[in-house]
Every structure is written in C-alpha cells, then in structure tokens.
C-alpha cells in the first residue's frame, strides 16, 4: 500500500469509476484476442468542392491477433501477502472471459526502482508494472512503459468516470499510468481531548490560525502522560499541503527548477517547523520517535491531531479509548489543499502481449474490483467514482469519513517532477536539522540547495540524453 512506502520507495528511486464499456476494438474472439492499439495514419479525404486535403486522423488499425494459445502475464503487486488473495480473485475472474490467459499474481513489488530498471534492460520486467505518481516519471523517460492513451481511445475509456488524477501519470503528453486508488492527507483529531479542553471541533472552513489556537489549548506537556497538539514529521506528505496553502510550490511548471528552495515558496514549511521549535505544540523528533515506540502516537492518545491519509483508517478504527474524527486541511492564504498519494498500473514496453495486459488492467478497474478492494483493504480509495461508495462505511468511525473522498478535489502530488530523483532524499535529510532545532530553515536551505540544484541539472541532462 502506498502509505507504507512513503520513504522506502522514494529512497530507492528519488517521495478508482464504473465498469468500462465493452472492449470493442480489442475484443476477445473465442479464446484469442483481436485488435491492437490505434495508430495515427494519414488519410486523404475530399471536402467541399473536389478540394483534396490531407488530414491526420486516429483510427484503429487491425494488427495480427494475439495468439490463441496459452498466454502468461506477470503481475507483481505491492500489497504483500494480504493482497495476494485479492488480486488472485481478480485474475481468476479475468480468466473466466480469457481462458487462454494466466495472470501470474506475485506479492513481490517492493518499490526498488533500480531493480525494475535492470529487469527492463534485460527484457525480463513484468508485463504489468505497479507504480505511482512518481514511478511513472522514473520509468517513462527511459522508454520502459507503453503509452496507454491509444488503448484507452480504442476501448472508449471514460476518464470522466474517475477522479481527475490521470495527469499525474502523463509525460510529454502521453499516458503512462492508470490510477488504481488514492489516499489524500487530511487531519485526524481526538474528539475526547478537544472536548475535555473545551475546544470546538474543526470545520471545513477552519484556517491554519484556527489550528494553531487549538493546538496551544490542548498541548499539556507538564502533565503525565504528556499530551501534544500534533505530530510534525519531516516527510513532505505531512507538510506538502502547507506549501500550496501558503502560495508556494515544489518545482516550476516543467520540473526543471526546485523552487521550494526559494522564498516565499517554503513559507508553509516554516509554519510547520515552527510548531516544534517556536510554538512547542508538536514533539521534537527525538520525543516523537520515543512516542512512536509505544505505537502510533495518535492511536495511543499522545497527540491530539495528526496529518494522515485514508490508508490509516483501518488502523484507527481499532481505537477503543477515545472518540476521533477527521477534517479537511485548514485554509491558508492560498486556500486549502491536500497531498495525494496513489497506486497505478502501467504496461511494460517489452511485453509480448500489450493488448492482453491492457485488458487485465481494465479488469482491475471495474466496480466489482473496487468493491473487493474496499472490503478487503479498508484503506485506499478507488479512483473509480462508482466504487467509492463501498469505501464509506456507515455506522463506523469517523463521522466525517466522506471528507477523505472529497479531499481529492483539491489534491496534488508533492515532489513530482520528471527529474526529482536526486532531490527528494537529500532535501528530506537536510531539513531534519530544522526540525530538531539545531539550525534554522534558512540556514538549512542555504547550505543544501546549491548541491541539490547541481544534482537536479545533472539529472535533467541525463534524462534528456535517453531520447537523444
């Protein structure tokens, strides 16, 4: 699950609608598959009075049908042993309509980008590639993934049936990934702590000033046990929403400059760091680590609030000692935003059976599949709008769980650029000194950003060399 690979995946590489229309252009014929992705062809047509013009039109061009004999696809997923029976069920359902196809489901995807780059170079990468909004940029420039746009066009794929997050997987105008599900970050809060302090619960129109006022009222570090206002961790998924809320950004429009290094782009990060070093309403890193040693600090009642995604919902539903809820992120000068993390499916360019791989990806995105994910995982939210009703569980906490679904409307992926690989980890390591108070954020960025800028330019040159 994406929520579990925030750091491990980024270290190795750099930080779901209704059932589809029938697959007309790529339909199954008997036990074989016919059709292929559409190609762009030139066609001379006659218009008006005998005037000939050449138009570039897109149409499906029939190619050699996929073999009618046995076909095996490899599909490693990131959901571990818990997800194996889930995706095996999807594969078994797929086989009912594609009897000559065996999808080898493997719980082995481990967010090691280098491993898959090596496999791709050797021609042994899996047919269907798991990924996310960052992995697409790791693999697409290197020619590892197929553009799924032509398959979508041929299948009359309705993007409007899904949340508007397909652009997360676009590179140079091509679609290299399809969203499976997502998790947006919002604020979990302990209703019991807030009630005991006489503090009103947050509402969707609250501001960061409102949040700070609440945090000051509920923080009690002179008692045993201590109660802190909020967790303030270094990973950008926890504070990325503040960057946009305070008017900043991570990269420029084409991803070639890491503008977070420049004022005023990091004003939101400064606000977050100040929760620890200035306002003393969040535990310093060493205290936070100690608290986490006894379990999730929010789940144990050690903090009144915590930024978190939908992935944490199944864990927090085990809480018995207090009441809790969730609210949308506060508004800053530029509005309210949410960090989003996703998981996606792509097609390996070297697969022998791209049409079959696309057909299986479609089967992973049906309403029935979304219902299965919600029933078994109880965390990630399907990107397919028709499947999201299965994620909301009436009668179970939190009361406002729909906020987690609604947050996607103002969500963005942080640290996303085709060239972010050498930026993310050095930046996170550098800002640790600001979080522990040994250096100011200005000092940290002044020291770290020149080297980050150099590494970024080297990555830009390297990526551009792939296409000559």
Structural description of this entry:
- The chain is an alpha+beta fold and 468 residues long.
- Helix 8 (236-245) crosses helix 9 (267-277).
- It has 2 domains: 2-24 and 66-181 and 342-391, Periplasmic binding protein-like II (D-Maltodextrin-Binding Protein, domain 2, 3-Layer(aba) Sandwich); 186-340 and 413-466, D-Maltodextrin-Binding Protein, domain 2 (3-Layer(aba) Sandwich).
- The chain has helices at 8-13, 80-97, 113-122, 135-139, 149-154, 191-196, 208-218, 236-245, 267-277, 285-292, 313-316, 354-363, 367-377, 402-406, 424-435, 441-466; strands at residues 28-29, 32-33, 39-47, 51-59, 71-76, 101-106, 128-131, 170-171, 174-175, 178-184, 186-190, 228-230, 303-308, 324-327, 338-347, 381-382, 411-412.
- Helix content is 34%, strand content 17%.
- The protein has 16 helices and 17 strands.
- The protein is globular and about 70 Å long.
- Strands 7, 10, 15, 16 and 17 form a 5-stranded mixed sheet that branches. A 4-stranded mixed sheet has the order 12-13-11-14. It has a two-stranded antiparallel ribbon with strand order 1-2.
- Residues 2-64 have low confidence and may be disordered.
